[in-house]
UniProtKB/TrEMBL annotation:
Gene3D superfamilies referenced in this protein's UniProt entry, alphabetically: CinA-like
UniProt source species: Pedobacter xixiisoli
InterPro entries: CinA-like_C, CinA_C
Protein's name according to its UniProt entry: Nicotinamide-nucleotide amidase
Record domain CinA C-terminal: where: 5-157
Signal peptide: none
NCBIfam families, A to Z: PncC_domain (TIGR00199)
Length: 164
């Protein structure tokens, strides 16, 4: 595994008997795949859904078409909505959603350039983390950075939550 943050998250999740599921748009399952390579993945990984196309967001994750139209599929609002939608499909302690722009041809603007990614993590009904970040590089590099960033957000949020 290229970066041990996925293994660190896996150990933290397994040690605390927590499970995780992911809804991934721009990363198309790469985060889930990275978690699956963890030695203890069978103890914490419930599954993932690649929801690259808007119709998957609407039909499977029940994201309102008006929300997609108003905010675009690559937005904080839709990222939250796919995370909530995932909660109805895969039962887990933690649900993560990722959307964003890894290449041109989407909803990019000057304010939201290619490389802009949105992240949402839920622990039950509570937000564990929410973030917007702009990464540089080609499509593969943006996806790699986004998955590492998500795992970092998860680890930091879990450590803070578990220390209470």
């Amino acid at each position: 595994m290229e970066h041990n943050i996925f293994e660190e998250c896996g150990q933290l999740l397994a040690k605390n008997k927590l499970t995780i599921a992911c809804a991934e748009s721009a990363t198309a399952g790469q985060l889930t795949a990275n978690f699956s390579l963890s030695e203890q993945s069978g103890d914490f990984l419930k599954g993932g859904l690649a929801c690259y196309d808007a119709c998957v967001k609407e039909e499977l994750l029940k994201v309102d078409a008006k929300l997609l139209e108003e905010f675009t599929p690559e937005s904080a609002e839709v990222t939250f909505a796919i995370t909530k939608g995932l909660m109805t499909i895969i039962k887990a302690d933690i649900h993560i959603g990722i959307t964003g722009l890894t290449r041109s041809g989407g909803s990019e603007t000057k304010e939201k350039p290619v490389g802009t990614m949105f992240f949402c993590g839920m622990f039950g009904e509570n937000k564990l983390f929410e973030d917007r970040r702009v990464f540089q590089g080609n499509q593969e590099e943006i996806v790699r950075q986004a998955t590492i960033h998500t795992a970092t957000l998860l680890k930091e949020s879990l450590m803070q939550l578990l220390s209470k």
